[in-house]
């Protein structure tokens, strides 16, 4: 069901052709494994995560045109084997980092289990403009960042292939906003996204091709 929020304006990225794009979630991080972390971007990969990163690199049957990587450590470590396999492929850092909605609660020494009740309260409140301080980001800002990512993709050549090393919630924000057309989320839209995120399997090291909604495709 399409959200009641305002849809894309004519000429937006979702209405234009985009290059073939793979959205790749990082491998298992220490945070995913339940260990304490020291800031939203600092968690490194586990041994399993490093093995998953190597498998991702081996899965490419041809070099992509461009590698895009999040500034967060776990995404950069996931991209490293692919970069090593294709050293001549350009690699650019884009703002495709994870949604950091708990602000200061992502601080030193907290685990995912310690943050879980705060995360539940955040999503239950469903306030798209809420910022919890520190490095916190509002849900509205997340969707704006996802739309900006789609806009930037749409400026690349149609025949390019792009591999994007990113994170679970950002990946889902991109696919959800592209599918629903949501640009300015209200509270019901935020609740709809949370349901979508909770019900859509997105395991570590998953690779998801980005596809335009059928209605927006350019047909020959």
From TrEMBL:
GO cellular component labels: cytoplasm
Domain of life the protein comes from: Bacteria
Molecular-function GO term, any one: phosphatase activity
SUPFAM superfamilies, per database record: Phosphoglycerate mutase-like
One Pfam family matching this protein: His_Phos_1
Protein name per Swiss-Prot or TrEMBL: Histidine phosphatase family protein
Organism of this sequence: Actinomadura rayongensis
